[in-house]
Each structure stands twice: as structure tokens, then as C-alpha cells.
């Protein structure tokens, strides 16, 4: 079934690889234990081709807490997602990359989502591809937005003294493609064939069925 859908997609005119774009990151800077959280968000991600306006935005909302945080402390509101404000249907994946630097400003410490960095991940509509990206299991029509990938973050409890005064940066990048099987496969995975990776193949199975639906 998947192969038949893929062959059908290849017979249709497709947009060029330019329609699969990486969008500039929206980042927050979190200062732990002895400093305040600060927030910095930026989005630079317009993409337009002749006659085919295509534009997907990063959704990133961060609320500065009223007091200095500590590992295992209060959750910090942080909403991440994507919105289709163009005129074409789109599929989306998001990279959420935590980076922790010790108080000396040089030593890089382990920082993994679900381990040293906790987030209330939405596992119902988002799928972890195991390649660093989280995939929205749906197709965004013009004007639609994803559910939040997560809505709050914090450093995990029980972290050792290396994390005192550490600096945590969460970089968020959204990549979107026109809703065409061949286009998102080529743009994201480098081939228009079904991915050999089992997890990505399952994600592709969900997306390809939705992309083919009107």
C-alpha cells in the first residue's frame, strides 16, 4: 500500500527541494540556581516560490519565572509548536535541542530531553523519530497550527553539583515541507523511498496516508 502511494506521488508534479526549508531557531536561555531565567525568541522563516506561497512559522512562547530556578524546581512555561500561515498544506517536524554549559562557561554537560532536561512532551500527536526530530502526525491546512510539542520545561531533580550555576539553552527549529510524499521524504531523509529505519517508516506510513487524503 505504501509503495503504491509512493509511486502515485512520483507521477504527480512536485515542488523542488526548495519547498523543504529549515526555519531559524527560536531559543530560550535558562540560567540555573544562582541567576534568573531570561528569554530570547526569534523567528526568520518566510519561504515563497512563484505562484505558490508557502510559509510555516515557529510557535514559541516563554514566560519568565518570578524567582531563580533550581534543578527539580518549579516547571517553567514554555510552549513550542508550528503554525501554517501560508496557502499550501504542509507537514512539519521540530528539533528541540537542549545544551547545558557549566558555570565556568566552557564545560558542556549532558542535556537530554527526558533525562537531564524534563518537558511534558505530547506523545499523542507528536512522534519521536529517534533522529533528534519530533514529527507532527498530521497535515496542516492553511491557517492551522499543531498542538504544543510541550508546554513547560525544567532541569531534572537530583542533578549533581556541576549543574549549579549552569546555563541551559533550548534551541527549537521547525522544518516544513509541502504535503507531498516525495517532497518531504527527499527533503527530510534524502530519498523518496520509504525510510529503512523502522521508527521513521512508521511515521512515514501515517503521514503518507494523510498527505494523499484531500
Kindly describe this structure.
By secondary structure, the chain is α+β, with helices and mostly antiparallel strands. It has one domain (2-212). 16% of the residues lie in helices and 35% in strands. Strands 1, 2, 3, 8, 9, 11, 12 and 14 form an eight-stranded antiparallel beta sheet that branches. Strands 6-7-13-10 form a four-stranded antiparallel beta sheet, with no helix packed on it. Helix 1 packs across helix 3. The longest helix is centred in the last third of the chain and has 15 residues, at 198-212.
Question: Any key phrases for this structure?
Answer:
elongated; disordered N terminus; 214 residues; alpha+beta; 4-stranded antiparallel β-sheet
The major β-sheet equals: 8 strands, antiparallel
- Which range does the strand content fall in? 25-35%
Give the C-alpha Rg.
19 Å
Residue stretches low in confidence (pLDDT < 50, at least 5 long) are 1-51
Mean pLDDT, all residues: 76
What sort of overall outline do the alpha carbons produce when their principal axes are compared?
Answer: elongated
Structural class: alpha+beta
The count of DSSP E runs of length 2 or more, i.e. the number of strands, is 14
Please give the share of residues in helix: 10-25%
Order of helices and strands: HEEEEEEEEEEEEEEHH
Distance between the termini: 18 Å
Q: What count of structural domains?
A: 1
Our count of helices gives 3
Amino acid at each position: 500500500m505504501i509503495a503504491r502511494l509512493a509511486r502515485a506521488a512520483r507521477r504527480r508534479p512536485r515542488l523542488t527541494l526548495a519547498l523543504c526549508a529549515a526555519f531559524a531557531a527560536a531559543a530560550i536561555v535558562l540560567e540555573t540556581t544562582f541567576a534568573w531565567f531570561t528569554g530570547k525568541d526569534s523567528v526568520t522563516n518566510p519561504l515563497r516560490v512563484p505562484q505558490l506561497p508557502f510559509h510555516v512559522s515557529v510557535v514559541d512562547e516563554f514566560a519568565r519565572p518570578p524567582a531563580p530556578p533550581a534543578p527539580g524546581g518549579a516547571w517553567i512555561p514554555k510552549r513550542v509548536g508550528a503554525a501554517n500561515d501560508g496557502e499550501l498544506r504542509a507537514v512539519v517536524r521540530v528539533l528541540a535541542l537542549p545544551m547545558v554549559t557549566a558555570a565556568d562557561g566552557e564545560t558542556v554537560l549532558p542535556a537530554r530531553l527526558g533525562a537531564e532536561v524534563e518537558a511534558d512532551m505530547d506523545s499523542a500527536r507528536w512522534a519521536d523519530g529517534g533522529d533528534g526530530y519530533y514529527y507532527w502526525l498530521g497535515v496542516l491546512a492553511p491557517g492551522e497550527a499543531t498542538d504544543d510539542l510541550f508546554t513547560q520545561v525544567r532541569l531534572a531533580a537530583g542533578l549533581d553539583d556541576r549543574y549549579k550555576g549552569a546555563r541551559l539553552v533550548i534551541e527549537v527549529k521547525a522544518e516544513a515541507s509541502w504535503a507531498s510524499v516525495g517532497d518531504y521524504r527527499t527533503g527530510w531523509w534524502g530519498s523518496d523511498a520509504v525510510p529503512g529505519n523502522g521508527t521513521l517508516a512508521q511515521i512515514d506510513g501515517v503521514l503518507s496516508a494523510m498527505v494523499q487524503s484531500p
